Amino acid sequence: MSFFGTSTTTNTSATAEKDIEMADPPTDSISSMSFSSQADYLAVGSWDNSVRIYEVLAGGQTTGKAMYQHQGPVLSVCWNKEGNKILSGGADNAGRMFDVQTGTTSQVAQHDAPIKSVKWVDAQSGILATGSWDKTVKYWDLRTPQPVASVTLPERCYSMDVQYPLMVVGTAERHIQIFNLSNPTTAYKTMQSPLKWQTRVTTCFTASASSGFAVGSIEGRVAIQYVEDKDSSNNFSFKCHRRDSTPTAKDQSMVYAVNDISFHPVHGTFSTCGSDGTIHFWDKDARTRLKTFEAAPGPITCSAFNRTGSIFAYAVSYDWSKGHSGMTPGHPNKLMLHACKDDEVKKRPRK
Fold it and tell me: Is residue 13 predicted with pLDDT exceeding 70?
């Protein structure tokens, strides 16, 4: 059953402004991206072992500002609160920090397996949380070489997000662990994913009265999940990122992974992007789809809103959803910018 009605305002491609393709993208698939909370700087992590930092200027022009390396593919990037340091984790099992002011890179975290996710925790002086395939989350004070704390997860970390004091970790075997970061070493709640298939992404709601998160799976489905039992009547899931096998079939039998979910920082609406090359904007409270993008020429691997929600960045690149055979020569690898209009991202009246 589809919980989401399609909204009546549709942008025809004739009137829609074209999204802007950024110059000088990474040379291999794009794994992750994150905007600074202080200015329109975008950090981008790639399988080419690099983190690139771009400045987005008025009008959508972009300029490359800096680049630094890991010794393996970069899987996750984030900024500190002040916007003067970039943190990244990768397949070299290392967490690295780039200081924007000095242009220097240093290693600030270490795991026994690749670091799948790095998130900044806005507590006291600021802490870096790293989630790894070694089945741990570690917390790092950047001034000391050893972690200040470590938590053992039930399985490998696949996705992690923080909206202080909430942290949500999605692992292999569909475990989800919810943390209250005022007590960071013990899970506040442990649950199975409400979705039947492998977790691809967990993203916290924008800070609001009721804390919760969205889960996306490999089976073209998203679940909206509230933390507290008193809000559980608002939990629901819906299908997305599916296609008909033939134009006449209307069977939605071709199912694609949901690769990323990003919440709008002002309105609390959210985006989903998938291996089918499409992006949708949704309103979870009105249970309505706000916008569908024209399909891109390849999977959408990751996405991010800037701090004001006026820019939506996304990456078109191969996500290995079809294995080695899908990595065709000349597969697109693009960084794209979309200028958000109010009617695409504002909440609708509840039904």
Answer: no
